[in-house]
Structure formats: structure tokens, C-alpha cells
Amino acid sequence: MAAETGTPTTLTLKSNDDELFSVAESAAILSVTIRNMVEDGCAGGVIPLDNVDGKTLASVITYMNGISAIPADEEKKKSYRDKFLSDKDFETLADMVLAANYLNMSCLMDAVSAKIAQVMEKKSVGWVRRKFGIENDYTPEEEAAVKEEHKWTFEGVETDDDN
Amino acid sequence: MADSIQEFTDSRQRIMNSSRFMSIDSCPMCRKRIRIDSKRQPNEFCAKKRYIGYNKDDRISELPDDIVVHILSFLTVEEAARTSVLSSRWINLWEYTTRLKLDGDEGLAKLRRQYMFRRKLIESEERKYVRRVNRVLQSHKALTLKEFRIRFALQITDHAQVERLEFDLQDDDNYHFPEKLVSTSVNFKSLRALIFTNVHVSKGPIEFFLRNCPLLEKLIVCYSANLSNLQVCGSSLALKHLEIVYCYHLNPLTVSAPSLTYLKAATYDRLVLENMPRLVEVDVNRTDDDVSLRGLCSALSCFSQLETLRLTLLRKEKVRLLTANIFSLRRCIGFLFTN
């Protein structure tokens, strides 16, 4: 293993649009999917990641390198994650959450999910629909019925037309 | 209040008996589409439209169910459940979240402070909260919960398997942990973390959890006036992290847990420590009498893995005494002194 020989092992990852990336094994094994490949001895050569595009993979690798450079200090890791995600738009976050799920990286998955949830927090139904482009496919009667069923969730929430 | 508790139990029982509750197909971790329960659809017309296609820009609705459910797990239950109104895609996703945080009690605590003497008003609000908890438990379908938090804890029922149980009653210093709870046949076998904050809990329930939760790794008790004479002992305990803080009538606390790596005991009471070969970090308050300090140091010197010791002393002049003793420790990198 890398630590024993003194020279860091690098892995080559290939995105689904055929971009190649080199990444230190020590950083890449943050992904349980990749770690399993390394442990099973099938991480030699190029590792194809069929569900991740080049742009997203580049971003995930930046994260892998950044977070693995921080020693075991949960506070610092958290602030790195916050900073890393602060300038990402929703489009990118959606790609990242899919990639994190595919690569089985729970820390990134949690951070991105929490970030997306944060956007929805304390917002009216109408606001969330507009923000994410969610099409309301209920008929007015259906919507009223669903609302009635979930009336308890609206207690204490300012009601306006948006709700 | 008794009525509410009964109501709570009854409705829970009904759900446990209904077959719909434990359908394996609906487990979000199985990476299957969650099927919309036909009974829950508002009417048959919209069934035709389900899952046919979303607005092209609607990335969030396109995400797989388990990811959306994961995202919803970071919201409060109320907020997660409110998403069912967004569109038919969202109608029952919230029911599979793996965290249940019923924090709606903040308003209640405020009410109690404001209208201390209007018992009826407070009771009616409390009933509302209980109804809401019932409501959530009725609808909820996840098989395993990572976290189940009720900020107005009344009765914990057997909700599949709970991994983390947290009682946190920040604004209420009169809540006594219902000891009846632990004598029931509730399944706590998968519990890994148990946290009591501002809940008066005595040694009985805690020792019950220690005996009956083979996977328990973390135990925190913070501010409990009832706790005394606690023994955290057992050769098969999986416990790694133990914090007993601000419990002022502990005397003594006995700890003997082979897997323990972290111990925090913010108490000036007597500590009996033994059999903790993996102990790495200790954080204690000590009385400044020489005997107990020497006793602590000699007890700690047996734990060969110990790296960090944080010690809060009442008086600074004891430092010299301490350093004389502490050399017997293998490594000791942290001290804190107050005053």
C-alpha cells in the first residue's frame, strides 16, 4: 500500500464522457465503491465510472482531495464542506448527489442532501414549486384533499395563496 | 394527559397490527420505486398521470426515490410531510425518511413560560402535539430509523428498530423519565446511541438500557438530578463513549467497560474506574482534596492507551501535586484549569 512504500499510489478514473482523471488512492477511497475495488485488487488500469460525467467527477475529485488533506477534525471538515458547496447551483448539487450516491460517499451525500433540504426549509409549497420547476399535476380538488390530509403540517405556518 | 398517552399507545398498536406497515417492497434502501399506495390517492383520475413525465427542468423530481427520501430526512417531519402537496410525485415520499424529528415542541415550551397558570390552554396544546406525533407515526413507513426524536417525550413505542434515542427537554426541568417504559417489551436491540438531556432519569432505566442494548456505543446523560450510584459495568459492553455531566448527586460513579475510549465525567463526586484498556481520552472535574486526586491519578495510570486528560480543578495550587503524580501516565497532553 502507498503508506508503506512512501510513493503515493494513484488511480485513474474515467467519466462516462471519456475524460480521464488521476487521483491519489488515499483520497479516492473516500468512495466506498472505489475502496471495494481497491480491496478486491481490481483498481489497476482505468476505473470506468459509467454514471458520472466529467464535470461532476472533476468536482467530486476536488472534494476528495480537499477533505482528505484535512486531518481528523470534524469541525474543519465541516467548514470545508460548507465552503465547497457554497457556490454550487442546484443543477450541480443534483449531479453531485447522484454521483455521491453512486460512489457511495456518505459524507458528501449527507452534505449535499442537507444543502438541498436547506433550500426548501421554511418555504411555502408555491415557492418550492417555482424554485425547482415542479409541475403541480393535482387537480384543484385533489390538491385540496392532500392539503386537508396534511393539515397538521401547516399548523403555525403563515398561510397565503402560495401555501 | 393520561388520555393522550392512551390515545398515543392505541393508535400505535393499530398501525403495528396493520399489514401495510411492514411491507418489504416499500423499503427505500431496496432501491426500488416506492409504489403509491392506492388507498392514499386523492382520486383515480390522477393515477393516470403518475410518473409519466415531469417538467424537463424539474431535476429534483427526477432524482431516484431513495435520494429524495434522504434529502427529506434533513427536514423536520412537518416540513417533509408538507412536500406531499407539491405534486403527485411527492405524495408519500416523506413517509420513508429515516429520521423523525418531532421538534414542534418549541412553541409549547414558550407557551408554558408565557401562560404558566393557564393549565387548560397548555393542556389543549399538549394534546395537539400528541395528536401530531400520533399522526406521523401512523403514516410513517421506514423500516429502520436512524434517529427518533420527540422533544415532548411521552411514550416510546416499538417503531421498527431505533438506532438512536434522544430525549432533549431543554426548556423543561421537571420531566421525569417514565420508568414504566423500560419494563415493556419494546425492542431496543439495535440501539446504538442513547442521549438524555435535561431529563430526570435514575440509575434503573440506564442500567436497563446497558443490559438490553448489546450494540450501544454512546451514552450521554446531561443534567439529571435523580441519578445516583450509577454503575456502568459489564465485560460485554460495547460502549465506547460515555458522558455523565452535570448530574450532581452521582456519588459514586462506577465505570468498568472494556471497549470505552472516551469518558467524560463532569462531577466532583467519587469515581471508581477500572477495566478500560482502550481508554484514550478522559475529561473529569476533581475535588481538590489530595486523597481523591491521588486516587484518580493512580487509577488512570493503569490505562496504558490514555492520551489526553482534561482535568478541571477548583484550586490552582494543586497543580504541583498533580504533576508529581501524572508522570506515571504514559502520555498526557492536555490540562485545563479553572480559577
Q: Got a strand count of chain A?
A: 3
**CATH architect. name of the largest domain in chain B:** Alpha-Beta Horseshoe
CATH superfamily of the largest domain in chain A: Potassium Channel Kv1.1, Chain A
- N-to-C span of chain A: 57 Å
Largest sheet of chain B: 9 strands, parallel
CATH topology-level fold name of the largest domain in chain A:
Potassium Channel Kv1.1, Chain A
- The CATH architecture name of the largest domain in chain A reads 2-Layer Sandwich
What order do the SSEs of chain B take from the amino end to the carboxyl end, as H and E?
Answer: HHHHEHHEEEEEHEEEEEEEHEH
Q: Please give the share of residues in helix of chain A.
A: 55-70%
**What sort of overall outline of chain A do the alpha carbons produce when their principal axes are compared?**
elongated
Order of SSEs of chain A, N→C? HEEHHEHHHHHH
Shape of chain B: globular
Organism (chain B): Erythranthe guttata
Pfam families (chain B): F-box, LRR_At5g56370
Protein name (chain B): F-box domain-containing protein
Subunit structure (chain A): Part of a SCF (SKP1-cullin-F-box) protein ligase complex.
